[in-house]
Structure formats: structure tokens, C-alpha cells
Amino acid sequence: MEIKGKKVLLMGLGILGGGVSTAKWLVSKGVKLTITDLKSEEYLKPSLERLSDLKGKISFILGEHREKDFLENEIIVVNPDVPITSPFLEIARKNGKQIENELTLFYKFCSSRKIVAVTGTRGKTTTVNWIAHLLKSKNPDTLIIGNSPEKPFLQEINKCSEDTYVVIEISSFLLEICGKSEFTPHVALITNLYRDHINRHKSMEEYAITKSNIFKHQKKDDFLILNKDNEWTDFFIAQKPKAKILFFSEEDSIVGKDEFVKLWGVHNLQNFAASSLVALTLGVYIAEIQKQISSLPQIKFREEKVFENENLSIYNDTTATSPDALIASMKRFLVDGEKVVFISGGTDKELDYKKWSEVAQKLIRPENLILLSGSATEKMKNELGWDYYKESDSLEECFSKALEIVKTENKAKIIFSPGAKSFEKFKNEFDRGERFNLILKGLLAKVSRRL
């Protein structure tokens, strides 16, 4: 694919870094770049400042999208937050424009074809990091892409050589255009599929079809790894993948179950089973995998312990953005008889909290659940049906209430696990997690004196 001199429209700059990275890479390739974003110049100021050294090389259309920009440019590069149903993308498609995103561009320009692509509803980030950890025993240059705002795709592309293993975390948003744009990972892994992102994909079947784009263009010498225990696995098989299909299950794990669950929780058995199978598929020996277990990395914002003293442990699980993720967190921490307080709640994305409420009613007392107000929180309360709730409009108030509950306990935990999105109060779940850590830091002296 040759793009030098082409007229390119970047649709969506955003403020998380991916848009800036994509813009800088496109300019470095010699394109004639225009950026359009519905957000205002004031909102996009952090990103615009990062592009200030490219003044004169980029045209900006901010606060609106214009039909003519989608007609006059040859290539449209789409930010993942832009749904494929956008009427402006429909204009581009009808007029034969080439549509790409940062994932498809990365694949087309990356020199490595040793690509492991991971998608799924839960466990993606942990699994990606653990796969890379295991593969580094074979190839220290293994690279992780797309699993945090700090590692956007095109910012990392120059680190790839032909021999680099590249482990990519891929959301369903990025996979939307991959059905019509070549993307052929050597190993594709779907960790699981649960109800999520229905506000974007409209139905579970549409969500599953989008996920299946990860293997749509694989060849017979590639590998597709599926979760034997997930109800959507048969649906993926029915799409008739061409790759060799392998299955993982927590029952097939090569690790000592009891000890592992104590350290990482039962839900991480599946993540480790999936990671191990990928490593085995790519030639890492079982003995080497077992040797690496003791040094598995703790993933930021995934049930991450952010404070501990002799009386209190505090965990930041801000990336628990669905009821299923909150269930997993509750089942891990509400088991040993200690006082455990959960801070949960947030923005609804058309998810069902009935199953979560059944688990919560069995595992936690009303006084130990603190809710952060939001549209999802209203759903949680309706499903629980309790007589009273501890609820606050601010995260700091929620945390202060949690401290009051545990202040007289000899051994206690506070778990920040929202089980919902964050857009009513925060930019995203990462912003929410950073804010929680800042609140904790600000109250740390108080915590240490009182507990």
C-alpha cells in the first residue's frame, strides 16, 4: 500500500493519544492530511498542542464533519470511537473511498507477520500481557500493542522487525472494518464473549459477528484459539474459519489451581490457560511456561492492589466496566470472612444487571456496598430491591464512606470495581482509575493514622 502524496482524512482526533499518534505517523509518510472532529478546539486542546510542531502540515476541521471532506479525500482513517454506521462513512463507502483505522494501517505497514491478535469481552489486557511475558522467554523483543492509551498502534510500529512477536489487544470497535480490510494474524484468540457494547453493536449476534472479523481472513496455516467453556464458541465455529482451531479451558491449565486462584482469582485461570496455549502453539516449552508463572505481571487497573498496610488492602479495578467483570471481582474477594467494602456504579451501556444482583445479594451486605451515582447505578438499585443504599455523587465521598466502614477493622479490603462505564463523570475508565488513585494518595496519611 502506497500512501505518499495521498489525500487522507483522519476522522476523530480524540484526547487519549491514538489520534495524535496516527496523525504524526501519517504526516511522516508524506500524506496530505486533514483532521476532522466533532469536538471543539478547546476540548481537543491537549491533542492539538501535541501536534503543534506539525503546524502547516495538517488542516483542521473541528466542531463539525463536512460531506465534502469525505468526497475530496482518497483515504478515510477512522478513530475507533466512530461507529461504522456513521452517515459520513456511508458517504465515503458509496463513493468508493478507502477506509482504514489504526489497526489496519499497522498491519499493512508492520514488517512482522508473527502477530498474535487477542479480542473478547473480558480478560483481553491481562491475557495480552501474560502472552507477551511467556513469549519473551523465547524472543525478548516481543512487543505489546494497543493495550493501553500509552501504547497506540502507530507509535510502536517502528519497533517491529521481521522477527518480532507482536501481541495485539483488539476491541470490537477496531474490528468493525476488518471484515472488508485485510487483517490476517498468525494466531487469533477470542477470550470469551458476554453481553457488552450493545449500545454500539445493537445485538449480541452483531457483536459476535464483529468479533469474528479477527479470524475472517486467516489462512489454513494460521491458528484460531477459542474458549471451550463459552456459549458463543459454537457460533464462531459456525462462521467456518479456515485456520486450525484450538481450544482452551480453565480445567486444562498447567498450573496448580488452588495456589493460582489464591493469588489471581478463579477468573484468571482461563486467562492463564489461554496465554499458555498461545505460547505452546508458538513453540514455548511447558517447563519454560511453568518457570514464568511466579513472575506474571500485575496489570494496572485490573484488580490492582494500590495500597496495603497491616490492617487494610485497597484494590483499583476501574476496568471492570460490565456486570460480569464485577461478578468476577466479588467472587474473588468476598470469600475469606474479612470485612470487604465494594465501591461500584457508573454509566449504563444497555447491560443487564439481574445476574449481578443475584450474586451481590448472596455475597455482600447492603452496608458494605457503596454506589457512585449514575445511569447504571439506577439499574443496579432496581435489580437489588433493597430498602436503603449507600450512594454518593462523587468518588471521593464514596471512598470516604468506605474508610468509615473499615476504620475499626483489624483486617479489611476496599475494592473499587464499578461494573459500569464512566462517561457521566470521567473521560473514560482510565481517567476514572487515575482519579481514584489521586484520591487515595490525598487521603493516604489519614488512612495510615486511622487504620
What is the approximate shape? globular
When the domains are counted, the total is 3
Low-pLDDT windows of residues: none
State the fourth-level CATH superfamily of the largest domain: Mur-like, catalytic domain
The total of beta strands comes to: 17
Strand portion? 15-25%
- Rg over CA atoms: 23 Å
Largest sheet: 6 strands, parallel
Written account of the structure:
By secondary structure, the chain is an alpha/beta fold. It has three domains: 7-100, Rossmann fold (3-Layer(aba) Sandwich), CATH 3.40.50.720; 104-295, UDP-N-acetylmuramoyl-L-alanine:D-glutamate ligase, CATH 3.40.1190; 304-450, Mur ligase, C-terminal domain (Protein-Tyrosine Phosphatase, Chain A), CATH 3.90.190.20. Helix content is 38%, strand content 17%. The chain contains 19 helices and 17 strands. The protein has helices at residues 18-28, 45-50, 67-72, 87-94, 102-109, 124-135, 153-156, 172-175, 198-201, 204-212, 233-238, 257-264, 267-281, 286-292, 323-333, 354-363, 375-384, 395-406, 429-450, and strands at 7-11, 32-37, 58-62, 75-78, 98-100, 115-119, 143-145, 166-169, 187-190, 223-227, 244-248, 304-308, 312-316, 339-344, 369-372, 390-392, 412-416. Strands 7-8-6-9-10-11 form a six-stranded parallel beta sheet, covered by helices on one side. Helix 4 links the parallel strand 4 and strand 5. The protein is globular, with a radius of gyration of 23 Å. 47% of the residues are buried. The model has no long low-confidence stretch (mean pLDDT 92).
